Task: inverse folding
């Protein structure tokens, strides 16, 4: 029994259409020539909030009955999902409780506040986060919107696959970053129902290889470290998502940190897109095994563009000509 | 007598459609909220070659008769136009002669070579460039494709305005960077013919204010310095373009260097687009006089994304969380 079907993804697409952007598929001729395949970037970095997370969050929020909606939604993500849920709830005009560790990055906190929502700060432990989220559920009756192990969220994320195959019918390969697996499960559900011959390949940091190990062992493995540059890919693969991956996934490619860094630079220089490290992981997979992709028509999901530029802010240190 | 008409722009749009990309208009909700207007970026940074120049170059190249085309095209631009012409000529399979100073930036040289064209290097003076270009014209019968003072180039650049008003019928203001004025003249020709009530505003660096002075004096003034960060905007306004600007332009806003730098950073952080300094000048104009734009629906042309990141390469120096 699959957690979601193509029909769920199609329903999500209709539901969220007024609230998310149909992002472009960006071609890059010189990079395609260099890597000997036709590469196009699905630029979810340009999505509202700078990540695909707007899709799943809007689907979960706008699927609520008016009665459920009155009691609001809650999550305890510290990443792009938090800001996406804040935005979706604000658009519907309902309460939203976003639990974040008090040491979350100022950029992530600011992203939630940009939608007029004040995060509920807690200690930076899983227990503290879950306790604070449970409190909002019990006190207000708010619905928990999990960042990936939620059928409505998975279906929402899968809507980007409908756009990709509509924009590029000749596509034969899609590469998707994997963390909790919500995006990947949604994409697999849509593509394997409509175009089963299109290969769907997961890209995962070698330093966050729990999905690779889970697929090998057949059960949910947990990460052994949490320090990959790709901070959006540090979560463990989900209970609901793993069976979908196990059934449909064609391949998984592990990538090294240096390749993620190089791919991030390449996307900005060659495709002029700001990708966060997690969003550059699919290109890193192509750079890792170019022979695997030679001659193919490859769609790469740039999952987000919220790059903490740190000391290296674009436009700040021009080289004098 | 206008150098081009709306019909020329429409003809160009049909001619170049197979060769250029219909770039997206990217919304940015938090930035719009902060600046109290509805801002959308026409992302020509995502165009093939990373700049709107692909449009004019393709229009000029594909308008040639087969007989003319055989003899090739020549230009002596050292900027985005050079690479755009190399790409257009390569697509048509005709000779192209690109004269560049031997001290041109390695990035600009590489952009031309990426399309399989070896630049003709010359001394870095205007005389040397023009002499080398004239030699190609005389020896091969190649047609000179000027970067802006050419009706086919102007009409090609104007095609982006057709896309903007088609994608966003409610738009009431367009802000365009000005250098030679080819893009601005093309945009004015299209918009003032179709939607004369839409305001078209030029944005120009205060350190390259020859267009502002030319509009004031009524004749072609020349730049007094060539050191604005916005290296794409250092050329003098053209002989053919100035009359179009004089007739139709609604306003011109001069911007300071620090504002250009801040706008470049803001576009990357808030809209996740890599803009070159020249491409950030329209946002700099809004940041300079926000009251001028309050409550309006403003399309900003991000003219290009070929930012020389110098010592500051995206993805290279992440701040340790």
Result:
């Amino acid at each position: 029994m699959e957690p979601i079907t193509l029909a769920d993804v199609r329903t999500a697409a209709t539901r969220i259409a007024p609230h998310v952007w149909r992002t472009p598929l960006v071609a890059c001729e010189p990079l395609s020539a260099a890597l000997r395949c036709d590469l196009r970037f699905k630029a979810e970095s340009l999505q509202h909030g700078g990540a695909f997370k707007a899709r799943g969050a809007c689907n979960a929020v706008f699927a609520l009955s008016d009665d459920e909606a009155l009691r609001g939604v809650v999550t305890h993500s510290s990443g792009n999902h938090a800001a996406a849920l804040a935005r979706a709830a604000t658009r519907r005009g309902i309460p939203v409780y976003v639990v974040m560790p008090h040491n979350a990055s100022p950029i992530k906190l600011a992203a939630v506040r940009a939608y007029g929502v004040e995060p509920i700060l807690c200690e930076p432990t899983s227990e503290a986060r879950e306790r604070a989220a449970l409190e909002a559920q019990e006190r207000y009756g708010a619905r928990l919107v999990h960042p990936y192990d939620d059928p409505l969220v998975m279906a929402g994320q899968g809507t980007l696959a409908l756009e990709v195959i509509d924009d590029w019918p000749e596509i034969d390969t899609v590469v998707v970053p994997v963390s909790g697996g919500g995006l990947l499960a949604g994409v697999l559900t849509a593509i394997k129902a409509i175009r089963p011959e299109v290969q769907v390949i997961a890209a995962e940091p070698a330093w966050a290889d729990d999905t690779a190990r889970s697929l090998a062992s057949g059960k949910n493995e947990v990460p052994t470290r949490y320090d990959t540059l790709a901070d959006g890919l540090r979560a463990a693969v989900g209970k609901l998502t793993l069976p979908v991956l196990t059934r449909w996934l064609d391949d998984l490619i592990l990538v090294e940190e240096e390749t993620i860094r190089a791919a991030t630079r390449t996307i900005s220089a060659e495709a002029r897109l700001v990708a966060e490290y997690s969003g550059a992981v699919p290109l890193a997979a192509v750079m890792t095994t170019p022979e695997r992709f030679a001659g193919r028509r490859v769609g790469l999901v740039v999952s987000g563009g919220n790059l903490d530029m740190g000391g290296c802010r674009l436009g700040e240190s021009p080289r004098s000509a």
In short: The mean pLDDT of chain A is 94. Chain A touches chain B through 45 residues (CB under 8 Å). Chain A has two domains: 6-51+150-302, 54-144.
